[in-house]
Design goal:
- With 67 residues, the chain is an alpha+beta fold.
- The protein is built from 3 helices and 2 strands; from the N terminus they run βαααβ.
- Helices cover 28% and strands 9% of the residues.
- Strands 1-2 form a two-stranded antiparallel ribbon.
- It is globular.
- 16% of the residues are buried.
Length: 67
């Protein structure tokens, strides 16, 4: 899985951490970020864990922050 969504000035530090984590298995997500697979970064989070595919790189760019 990869954590996808907008990376801008509103992005929470935990979400930035999960975006930068790259691809993880479900077990790794549960171990490193307990509860985040279901709840993401918390209330009103704009991100989600998505299955990594050959197209994932189009939607996951941790190095680019949108202003």
């Amino acid at each position: 899985f990869v954590y996808v969504g907008v990376n801008d000035g509103k992005t929470r530090p935990i979400c930035k951490s999960m975006i930068n984590a790259g691809s993880l298995t479900r077990a790794e997500i549960d171990d490193q970020y307990p509860g985040a697979f279901i709840d993401g970064g918390g209330f009103n989070c704009r991100h989600r864990w998505a299955v990594q595919t050959s197209l994932s790189d189009r939607f996951h760019n941790p190095d680019k922050e949108v202003a």
